[in-house]
Specification:
Keywords: Membrane, Transmembrane, Transmembrane helix. With 109 residues, the protein is mainly alpha-helical. The chain has one domain. Strands 1-2 form a two-stranded antiparallel ribbon. Helix 1 runs antiparallel to helix 2 and helix 1 packs parallel to helix 3. The chain starts with a helix and ends in an 8-residue tail after the last helix.
Length: 109
Amino acid sequence: MNVLHGVSYFFGGMFLVNMVPHFVAGMMGEPFQTPFAKPPGEGLSSSTVNVVWGFANGVIAYLLLVCVGRFEVRSLACVLPAAAGALLLAVQMSRHFGRFHGGNDPEQA
């Protein structure tokens, strides 16, 4: 695996993890923050926008993970960059969205 494939897998992991909250919130019929809200990333977007945004993230993740190089799920050289990207963005998202949903300080919620 070359370096560019590793970079692609890293960002593929990020897009894959970003898909989850948007797609799930949208399917549950709940508004959630998106880059399209006002202000971007802080305001709420409709459940339909979240489903579409989540789906778009899933498509991008697929393209980065499956269509670049030869992603092998049994190869640590492939999985580690994807997992690192997913974990990094998940932690960042937990801090960002925790400000709006009480997750950063559960005692205050």
